[in-house]
Amino acid sequence: MAVGGAFLLVVLVLVVVGGLYGVAALVRLGRAVTDVRPFLSGHEPAEHAVSRFHVRWYALTMVFLAFDMEMVFMYPWTLVVAEAGATAVVEMFVFLGILFVGVAYAWREGALRWT
Questions:
Q1: Is the predicted pLDDT of residue 33 greater than 90, yes or no?
Q2: Nearest residue to 95 (alpha-carbon basis) of 61, 69, 65
Q3: Quick check: is 45 in a domain?
Q4: Which residues contact 106 (CB under 8 A, 6 or more apart)?
Q5: Rounded Cα gap, residues 76 and 54, in angstroms
Q6: Is residue 114 included in any domain, yes or no?
Q7: pLDDT at 41
Q8: What's the structural domain count of the chain?
C-alpha cells in the first residue's frame, strides 16, 4: 500500500512539473532575452559577482555576529530572569561586559572605520 502511495506521489509531481513547463512554453516570448540585467537598475556591474571582499568586512561581520548572539541569549533570559533572581542579572552583565570588551577591541583595531 505504501509503494502505491509513493508511486502516486511521484506521478503527481511529474504531472505538476510537466504542466508548469508546458504553461511556461506557451507564454514565453518568441526570442530569448539576454540583455536584461536585474540588478543595479540595468547598469553594467563594476565588478564580477563572485569577486573578493575587502578584509575589513570580515571583522565587521564578526562584530555583527557577536551582537546577534547577544540577542539569541537575551531573549530567553528575559523570560526566566524573574525566576532566577539576582544571579541571572549579574551573569547577563558579565556577558555584556565581555561583548563590550570585544567591541572596544574591534573599535581600537579600526574594524568599524569605513575609510
A1: no
A2: 69
A3: yes
A4: 59, 62, 63, 112
A5: 35
A6: no
A7: 66
A8: 1
Q: Is the dihedral of CA 52, 53, 54, 60 positive or negative?
A: negative
Grid cell for residue 68 = 546577534
The residue segments making up the domain with residue 102 are 2-109
Residue 105 lies in a domain: yes
Separation of alpha carbons 51 and 56, rounded Å: 15
* CATH classification at residue 58: 1.20.58
- The alpha helices in the chain, defined as continuous H runs, are 2-27, 56-84, 86-109
Q: Which amino acid is at 44?
A: E
What residues contact residue 36 under an 8 Å CB cut-off, 6+ apart?
42
Cell of 90: 549579574
Predicted TM-score of the model (pTM)? 0.45
Cα torsion for 30, 35, 38, 44, to the nearest 10°? Answer: 180
